[in-house]
Amino acid sequence: MASSSGIATAAPGPEPGRPALADGAEIHDRPPTPPWALVTLGALSAAALAAACWVAGHVHADPPLLAAARFLHLAALIVGLGSVLAVDWFAILWLLGRRRLADVLQTACALQMPIWLGLAGLVLSGLFLRPNLSSPLTAIKLGLVLAVMLNGLYAHWLGQRVRQWQTQRVPRRLLIQSGIAATISQGGWWGATVIGFLNSQP
Questions:
Q1: Other C-beta atoms lying within 10 Å of the C-beta of residue 6
Q2: Phi/psi of residue 97, nearest 5 degrees
Q3: Angle between helices 63-95 and 101-126 (to 10 degrees)
Q4: Phi first, then psi: what are they for 151, rounded to 5°?
Q5: d(CA 12, CA 113)
Q6: Dihedral Cα 33, 111, 191, 120, nearest 10 deg
Q7: What is the largest CA-CA distance in the chain?
Q8: DSSP secondary structure string, 22-79?
Q9: pLDDT at res. 14
Q10: pTM summary value
Q11: Each residue of 1-24: pLDDT tens digit?
């Protein structure tokens, strides 16, 4: 499978794993996202995932549709997880002193759309993959997907604070919070991917 590096952040909208940042004065002029909006998006994300589970329990895909869904599921995983890894790699290079913080933020901004599209593609294609909703592994996977979504919103909020330190040393507290967000993101994406692989075995 959702999300993200808390180090890279803030953009026009939250993204699973991390918010991204646009360039220049536009970034500083954009007002922070109101907390109530993030809470509302979190509730809508949980409701959308619950609705997807209900639909998946009532959909019976024929073999051609099932094959197409498997291909789209894999493609969405490549797009989403690949983008997450790219942003986190830039964040690691920044920590090593080989990139500027602005480079990380710009990369996150450029890749936020593929990350969210990848996550949405995984959920939508998963509707047709005949998930066993009574399986404990499937329940864990759904929990990881929700964690990636909510972590993305948290990373967006966090990013709006990190962006204020582009020309200064980032406070240790924000670095720790960013590390936690990145860990949750990687754990969620990889955990859901492994469970999806195990569930696909005969």
A1: 31
A2: 80, 15
A3: 160
A4: -65, -35
A5: 10
A6: 70
A7: 57
A8: --THHHHHSPPPPHHHHHHHHHHHHHHHHHHHHHHTT----HHHHHHHHHHHHHHHHH
A9: 42
A10: 0.78
A11: 444 444 444 333 444 444 333 344
Secondary structure (DSSP) of the chain: -----SSS---SS--TT------THHHHHSPPPPHHHHHHHHHHHHHHHHHHHHHHTT----HHHHHHHHHHHHHHHHHHHHHHHHHHHHHHHHHTTSS-HHHHHHHHHHHHHHHHHHHHHHHHHHTTS---TTSHHHHHHHHHHHHHHHHHHHHHHHHHHHGGGTTSPPPHHHHHHHHHHHHHHHHHHHHHHHHHHHHH--
| pLDDT, position 29 | 53
Residue 97, Cβ neighbours under 10 Å: how many?
Answer: 7
Can you give the pLDDT at residue 30? Answer: 63
Query: How far is residue 29 from each of residues 117, 163, 172, measured CA to CA in Å?
Result: 27, 12, 25
Low-confidence spans in the chain with pLDDT less than 70 = 1-30
Whether 122 and 144 have beta carbons less than 8 Å apart is answered as: no
Residue type, 142: L
d(CA 162, CA 10): 8
